[in-house]
Structure formats: structure tokens, C-alpha cells
Amino acid sequence: MKKIGFLSFGHWTPSPQSQARSAADVLLQSIDLAVAAEELGADGAYFRVHHFARQLASPFPLLAAVGARTSRIEIGTAVIDMRYENPLYMIEDAGAADLIARGRLQLGISRGSPEQVIDGWRYFGYQPGEGETDADMGRRHAEIFLDMLRGQGFAQPNPRPMFPNPPGLLRLEPLSEGLRERIWWGAGSNATAVWAAKLGMNLQSSTLKNDETGEAFHIQQAAQIRAYRAAWKEAGHTREPRVSVSRSIFALVDDRDRAYFGNGQEEDQIGFIDERTRAIFGRGYAAEPDRLIEQLRTDEAIAEADTLLLTVPNQLGVDYNAHVIETILTQIAPALGWR
Do residues 327 and 256 touch, judged by C-beta distance below 8 A? Predict the structure, then answer.
């Protein structure tokens, strides 16, 4: 059994071929798709965060709106780039969104990926400390965020406050109890997956990772998940961790599916996410249902994960993406024992 959700990057373009031609279109359609996915029985609505791009960027207003419009579905990110974040302000935003959603937030964070501009986090007022890289800074911001989620008081109260204070040091409010256990780390390497396990974060593994062995993507990703679980056990955490993987999966059941995805790429790709890091990009899946089921049976990383996020082509509109999700839930997932 697996939890199955969708992951939207929230692209928009003024092209007449796009159903999402503005930021308003993307935001409102994201809410509508989450509502539709919940009605179809999906388990999660997740959104990517990219700055300086015509994509979703500020997650918390969207997460709060989805939380107010839904009642059951998990709501999350995959992922927030922590190089751009003030972790203390983020505590307040995340706490408010989680309380509105009544404890359904699943917050994916990461050190970030290559962005649209050079050192974009500098425009947000952040810069690495002496001897730090930008990745180090992102992980430092994440560690502060995790520490603040414990809810311990740390700020000295004003002796003449505007409103009465509780006794002792003050913490950030609102704090949502239990959110600390619903933080996920988007890991691009085996080492960062192990680091996330030691800190007690769940694991999000995407459709790309560092090419560390030259093996097929799904085999490397499965090894990453196993290394994460071993590190989690060694760290002595008492709860069971969660692990998600993302995939582009399309069952070709009508003419629209065949027109959009009938000539899909069926092999992994190799590229570089920066001048030093060789990366492997996982293949997409697009086939008639019987063939698709057999292909997915061989994906070792999906087998290792408890949560599958379906990357959706949001510019094709809410109705088509609801169709994509429904087809996977009703025709593919039961045959694979995911439902």
C-alpha cells in the first residue's frame, strides 16, 4: 500500500496553448486541483517552490488556502529552498498554515537546486558565513528551523509588554504541535539522505540525483533509500520514517493521452546540475495500462518508498490533470498492490 499524491511545479506562460497563462491562473488552479484530487481519493497535494521564475514561489498562502478548502488530503511542498528562507519567520508561516489545515502539512525542504539567477538568495538578504558554501547555509537554516519547531522558549520577555506574557522565555507563535515530525528533506545524494535521517527528517527523493555509481536511476535511488533507513535505525529514532519518490507516469487510455505523451522518453538521462556535479535524471513512464503496470513493477525505488508523488503537467489544466490522477488511482495502483 502506498500514499499517492501529485506534485505540481506550477508553471505558467502567456502562450495560448497553456491553460495557465498567469500567476493567478496557477494559484487558483492549484487549489482546484487539490480539491479534485481529494475527491478522487488521492492522498497528497504537493507543490514545488522556485524563485525568479514563472512558477509557484511563495508556498504558505497557497498551502493555507488549500488547507481551508480541503479536509483530508495531505498538503505539502517538494521542496522549499532553505537558502532563501528566514527560518524563524518560516516557523510562524508554517505553524499558521498547518493549524488552518488541522495538522495535514507535510513540509519538504532542501538546500536547493540550480536557480534562474546567479546567487538568488543574496537578493533575499542572505549570504554564507565565513568558510560556508551556499549549500552549508541552506542546511544551517534548516537546522535552525528544526530546532525552533521543538517549541522551547528562547527569547527574553519585555518587562513592560503590550500584553501579558506566560512565565519564562518566549517561543515563536503560532506553533503547531507535531509539525516537527512532518518535515521532509529533499536529498540529491546518499550522504545528504543519511544526514537527514540523523536529524529525524522524512526523505523526499526526486526524479534526479547525483550519479554516484553509474547504475540505472531507480537502482541508485533505491540504494539511497536503503542507506537512509539504515541511518535512521542507527540514530535510534522511535517512529517509522516516511519516504517519497516522484515520477512522471501517464497511462495512455484516450486520444488526449496519446497525443500528449505517446512518444515519451523511456530512458534515464545524464546531465550536470552544476559544473562539478554529474546527475542522473530518471525516465518518465507513458504506456498503455497493461504495459505501464509491467514497467512500474521493475522500479526498485518505487517499491522501497511508501509515498509516490505524480508530477503533473499543470499547464494542461485542472480537468486533464484530474483525469491523469484518476487513471493512476483506478487502473494502475490496484494492479500493483498500491491500493
Answer: no
Cell 535510534 maps to which residue?
A: 236
Judged against a pLDDT cut of 80, whether residue 157 lies above it is answered with yes
CA dihedral 70, 74, 79, 85 (to 10 degrees): 70
Q: For residue 114, what pLDDT is reported?
A: 79
Q: Is the pLDDT of residue 112 over 90?
A: no
Q: Using CA of residue 164, residue 170, residue 172, residue 175, what is the dihedral sign?
A: negative
Q: Are residues 169 and 92 in contact, defined by beta-carbon separation less than 8 angstroms?
A: no
- Cα(91)–Cα(88) distance, integer angstroms: 5
Q: Per-residue pLDDT tens for 315-330?
A: 999 999 999 999 999 9
Please give the pLDDT value at position 18.
97
Angle, alpha carbons 153-155-160 (nearest 5°) = 115
SS3 for 299?
coil
Predicted model pTM: 0.96
Interval 263-298: pLDDT, tens: 867 788 888 877 778 899 999 999 999 999 999 999
**DSSP secondary structure string for all residues of 49-70:** --SSSSS---HHHHHHHHHHH-
Question: In sequence order, what are the residues at sequence separation of 6 or more whose Cβ sits closer than 8 angstroms to the Cβ of residue 250?
Answer: 257, 260, 261, 264, 284, 285, 286, 324
Q: Which of 155, 185, 188 is nearest to 172 (CA)?
A: 155
C-alpha cell at 256: 488526449
